[in-house]
Specification:
Keywords: Membrane, Transmembrane, Transmembrane helix. The protein folds into three domains: about 60 residues, no CATH class; about 120 residues, no CATH class; about 200 residues, Leucine-rich repeat, LRR (right-handed beta-alpha superhelix) (Alpha-Beta Horseshoe), CATH 3.80.10. The protein has about 425 residues and is of the alpha/beta class. About 35% of the residues lie in helices and about 20% in strands.
């Protein structure tokens, strides 16, 4: 105990500048770790286990909100929404808390909780594209702070990790600041090492900027595109953009759209036409490309280029029908066919989408043997439900989603997606 007190006594000897630096660093860490982010659950391309837990929390909190008044369920059956539940995740570098808030309108029309408005917001950069009218600063919104809670999920080990990381950052920042002040003999005394350290920091920042700016140039991203979720080039290229920068930087900024430099292409849909070669040749340069949708046709030479994409994890194949074999494109190029399925194993995909009735149980079984695959989506496959169930039993780690044939979407009403568990 005496040893611990003697070590804590060292804090009294710290320079006032060190205390100021520690205070600023603590405030920065608070804005990064404490305010929560709204959890957006999506089946596309693939929800993480944490997102799945958050979705279960949201559904459970919804059920609890309805349980207070059974009459709410009758209104829901009539198409009137009475409860809206949101889940916020807190923590960095690992989320340790999921917090659910239920916004409910009772049977008399009274609202028991209204959604708070952010204190800081800016006009949206892409509102003319049909998006949100404003960019909100998340940490300026009351609901993002853990002051109210209707349901919660906590991960103790993640909490310990976050506390350890924050403590380590404070110790390193405080130690370096105090060491520099004592070595130099004051705040405004500088050595050659300070100049070298400053130049190194500037070099790292400039290198970071140049890397992302050059990558956006390769992706054909201009300022008007970097804020927009999707854009088109020549009508045959459809790209999706997402934030790929550090999580702490996004949380500190309060909104991902305040950091346009760190938005890059992560999903692409290509329609094979006379420009397919030039388009597919660009894809290996897209460092953050994870999802590819090859619409209508896939030339085999294009598949050679797809194999060079370093981060590809989700692949949607073109429609293949038994009654319309098209082994050659209009330009005379050989196209992807059923017998080329085995080539896809080397892509190390997480999910794949098979379209058309040319896919029988044998082909689906072949795809299910890919070692890294976790999800297979079937659209109009020729395999029966019993055959798919058997494949599912043989490959319990893979989720199957069955959709109707793409042609069915031309006629109402389509059958909803049906996960096979």
């Amino acid at each position: 105990m005496h040893a611990l007190l003697s070590r804590l006594a060292i804090l009294k000897m710290l320079h006032w500048v060190t205390w100021c630096v520690l205070l600023v660093t603590t405030l920065v860490l608070v804005f990064i770790i404490v305010p929560g982010d709204l959890v957006q659950y999506s089946q596309i391309p693939w929800p993480t286990p944490w997102e799945q837990q958050c979705e279960k929390l949201r559904l459970a909190t919804n059920e609890m909100a309805y349980a207070f008044d059974p009459r709410d369920r009758q209104l829901v059956a009539m198409g009137t929404t009475r409860v809206s539940t949101k889940v916020y995740q807190h923590g960095w570098p690992s989320p340790f808390l999921a917090r659910a808030l239920a916004f409910k309108v009772d049977t008399s029309g009274q609202v028991n909780r209204t959604q708070s408005e952010p204190l800081i917001r800016f006009k949206s950069s892409f509102s003319q594209w049909g998006g949100s009218l404003h960019h909100d600063v998340s940490w300026s919104n009351y609901d993002n702070w853990p002051f109210e809670i209707d349901g919660w999920l906590i991960l103790p080990w993640s909490l310990l990790l976050d506390v350890a990381v924050a403590t380590a950052i404070l110790a390193v920042v405080g130690g370096l600041t105090e060491w520099r002040l004592r070595r130099n003999g004051g705040l405004f005394r500088f050595h050659l090492a300070d100049l070298l350290g400053g130049l190194t920091l500037i070099g790292v920042i400039l290198g970071f900027y140049v890397y992302h700016a050059n990558l956006q140039r390769i992706e054909h991203l201009g300022e008007e595109y970097s804020f927009v979720p999707t854009y088109n080039i020549e009508g045959s290229f459809h790209a999706g953009v997402r934030y790929v920068g550090p999580v702490w930087m996004r949380k500190l900024a309060g909104n991902q759209y305040f950091l346009p430099l760190l938005h890059h292409v992560d999903s692409v849909a290509v329609r094979a036409d006379e420009n397919w070669n030039s388009i597919y040749s660009e894809l290996p340069k897209f460092t953050y490309l994870t999802s590819l949708d090859a619409r209508h046709q896939l030339p085999l030479k294009a598949l050679d280029l797809v194999e060079q994409c370093p981060s590809l994890k989700h692949f949607a194949l073109p429609n293949l029908d038994r009654d319309s074999p098209t082994p050659l494109s209009q330009q005379g190029e050989p196209l992807f066919q059923i017998e080329d399925l085995a080539r896809l194993e080397k892509l190390n995909l997480i999910s794949i989408r098979l379209r058309g009735d040319a896919y029988f149980a044998e082909q689906i079984e072949l795809v299910a043997t890919f070692p890294t695959l976790q999800q297979i989506t079937l659209e109009g496959a020729a395999a029966s439900q019993e055959e798919i169930e058997k494949i599912k039993r043989d490959h319990p780690d893979i989720e199957f989603i069955v959709l109707p044939s793409p042609r069915v979407w031309l006629y109402p009403p389509p059958t909803p997606a049906t996960p096979i568990r």
